[in-house]
Design goal:
single chain
Length: about 110
């Protein structure tokens, strides 16, 4: 009953160096792993000639930063932000979950 099956499965060692760090003789003469020939870099497309100075567009002044919002606009934005938070808390409460359960701290 102790029949040994002959398998077609063969394990081959593909390492290039021995455990001592020496180059294995099988890998030194392996022509199948020859490095590929370097590919020349692509040639960039020709750059069109620069337009004559008479055709050049006038430079636009650099864009300035927009002015900060007014006190009224900032207050409205803050009030709207807080109101949306309250609406979300109300929807969570209607679903049967207390909003406090969704608060995240470093301890929780």
């Amino acid at each position: 009953m102790t029949e040994k099956k002959q398998s077609d499965f063969v394990v081959s060692d593909k390492r290039k160096f021995t455990s001592e760090g020496d180059l294995r003789p099988e890998t030194a003469s392996n022509p199948a792993e020859a490095p590929p020939e370097p590919v020349p870099p692509p040639v960039p497309p020709p750059v069109p000639a620069a337009p004559a100075p008479a055709e050049a567009l006038p430079e636009a002044p650099p864009a300035a930063a927009p002015p900060p919002p007014s006190e009224a606009a900032a207050g409205d934005a803050q009030q709207s932000y807080r109101a949306s938070g309250k609406r979300i808390d109300e929807r969570i409460a209607v679903a049967g979950h207390p909003p406090e359960g969704f608060e995240i701290t470093f301890e929780h």
